[in-house]
Amino acid sequence: MDINPSHKIFIVQKVIVLNSKNNILVIRRSDTAKIRPLGWDLPGGSLEFGEDPKKVIKREIEEETGINTGQIELLDITSFLEEDKYTLMIGYTAYADKTDVKLSFEHDLYKWSTKDDFLNSDIPDTYKNFLKKI
Fold first, then answer.
1. What gap in Å lies between CA 128 and CA 119, rounded to an integer?
2. Pairing assessment for the beta strands 44-46 and 24-29 based on DSSP bridges
3. Does domain 8-132 have CATH number 3.90.79.10?
C-alpha cells in the first residue's frame, strides 16, 4: 500500500469494564455524538500524540463513567481500514470498584450486560471480538 499524506491514522482505546458478577459495562452514546449517535459503546477514546496509553484509558474510564479501576490489562490490538482512515484499536479489561455509574455528557444511558447479551447486541463487532478473548 502506498503512503499518502491524505491518509489518516487513528489510535483508539476501549476497555471492557467488569463488575464482581463479570457483567460488562456498556454505555450509550448521546444523540449529539458525531460517530454512532445513540449507539452502545465501551468506555474509551482516542489516543493523542505523545500520550501514555494506560494513563489515558484510566482517565477515559473515570471521565466517562465516574468509576475507578485497579489494574488495567491489555487484552488485544486490532486494526482496520475504512477508505482513507486507518484505525489501530487497543482493547483492555478492568474491574470496576463500584457499579454506580456517573455518566459524562458524552453518554446518556448505561447498563451492566451479561456476556451473552453483549455478544447478541447491536455493538461493533470489534468490541465483540475483544470480549471473545476473555
1. 6
2. unpaired
3. yes
Q: Retrieve residue 12's grid coordinates.
A: 483508539
Report pTM: 0.91
From the CA atom positions of the chain, what is the Rg in Å?
15
Q: Are 68 and 81 in contact (CB under 8 A)?
A: no
Residue 10 CA to residue 113 CA, distance in Å, equals: 28
Which residue, 26, 33, 34, is CA-closest to 120? 26
The 10s digit of each residue's pLDDT in 68-91 is 998 999 999 999 998 888 999 999
* Grid coordinates of 44: 474509551
Which of 120, 25, 131 lies closest to 75, judged by CA? 131
The H or E element that residue 93 is part of is strand 85-96
CA distance 119 to 44: 19
Q: What is the pLDDT of residues 28-81, one digit of tens each?
A: 999 999 889 999 999 999 999 999 999 999 999 999 999 999 899 999 999 999
